[in-house]
Design brief:
By secondary structure, the protein is α/β, with parallel strands linked by helices. 31% of the residues lie in helices and 25% in strands. It binds flavin-adenine dinucleotide (FAD) and adenosine monophosphate (AMP).
Amino acid sequence: MSDKFDVIVIGGGPGGYAAAIRCAQLGLNTACIEKRINKQGKPALGGTCLNVGCIPSKALLDSSWKFYEAKNKLADHGVVVNTPKMDIAQMQKRKDEVVLQLTGGIGALFQANKVTWLQGSGKLLSGKQVEFTPNEKGDAQTLQAEHVILAAGSVPIEISVAPLKDDLVVDSTGALEFTSVPKRLGVIGAGVIGLELGSVWARLGAEVVVLEAVDTFLPVVDTQISKETLKVLKKQGLDIRLGARVTGSDVKGKKVTVSYEDGSGEQSEVFDRLIVAVGRRPMTGELLSQDAGVSLDERNFIYVDSQCRTDAPGVYAIGDLVRGPALAHKALEEGVMVAEVIAGEHTQVNYDTIASVIYTHPEVAWVGKTEDEVKASGEAYKTGVVPFAANGRALAAGDAEGMVKFVVDEKTDRILGMHVVGPQASELVQQGVIAMEFGSTIEDLQLMVFSHPALSETVHEAALATDYRAIHVAQRRRKK
Ligand code: FAD
Ligand code: AMP
């Protein structure tokens, strides 16, 4: 094996594999170092997202939703099923197959693009040198690159008040592997991951209690949308307790007792399983030698500029290692941007139009600024909010909870934010992303013809509603 490359990427997740493939497309001799061994004991590309994140969680969310529908919703449509049963082993087998298909696909893409996959650990040394330690037996080797891209991602945060224990107290990775439905499940943290994984097991019949230290539910989400989301999730049976800070846990036999403090004092709950979902931290620990020359910020993320350059010349860092939302699509686009910057192109990720999604049912999705953020900035703004209950397609499908909301600059008519809780919010929000990327005004959306009946009509109606022109909802105030 050569010890010289144009580009060495450390980490083969969405950030790293996309960067490596794009570098190779641009004619750069590229190696990607990835150390992951999957649960089948094989080296695997795809990072957190494909192996233990986005993809397996969505597979379980889809399976559990089908079960929930069969049990609670199909009768409304006149579909009579005998009491449905859940085969957890089959659900997990299917999930594992989806993961293997996708991670294997990245390996095939590496081969097709002639990216060299080095199976083992990488560490950044000084002067764009990388120490590579193979997973298999063999000595560490020093490699030289013209450019290095750090894409080592993140791992779950562990907290001393709830240390992981076998399959009883688990992190998000363990929560994807339950082989039976716990009777009572505790979740610490009402963030995206806690809500998604809590939803999976609640739909399958677990009594789920979510303990969240902060008083506000989903503080980064637009308040009107987060209030509606909380209402719907509570109705589905998720017992979400806000202002509940976990202070300790005690495992005895097959039970875990969790103590927490809330407004009324010390409380405790006994669970059959506990998921710790209190956030993720960047994997900087073994990635950097003392003299690597990159700086970390106050939260231990690698400090980068808007094009992901670190303080070390020729070294870039992307994805969950750096500032910004911990999202696969953000990591991926940063990977592409850095590859193109290395190849001399002038690419820039537009951080203002990266959408976030919570894959509960209904889904929650948003892009841009919340109403509270715009209000605080003092800009004059207008909003338009329309519920899915006014949408024919949503009603026909029996899936009409939630709403679409636009926040619009009053003076320029430009879209500042789009917020959705409702069916297929992850797909609908992309319409807002496209509009915002094109710098369209809300009037542009108002003037477009949307197919009928479609969920997208709610996007149209919400755009109309910003000027009191919605047809299918009664709006109180009419503009002069
Ligand atoms: P990662 O995907 O973490 O990949 C980094 C890779 O680098 C890892 O495979 C690791 O083994 C490897 N590595 C680390 N250090 C070294 C080293 N020294 N040498 C060699 N290799 C190394 N995001 C979404 O956008 N949508 C979702 O629906 C979503 N769902 C999620 C659900 C869960 C349960 C979790 C945990 C996360 C989810 N995320 C989701 C977040 C998403 O997974 C991450 O934002 C994304 O994977 C970050 O990509 P990355 O390339 O920066 O890092
Ligand atoms: P996220 O970072 O979006 O994954 O969300 C993690 C959530 O866990 C945050 O909302 C934190 O407030 C919450 N959290 C962190 N520590 C605790 C704790 N000890 N008890 C309850 N909630 C916590």
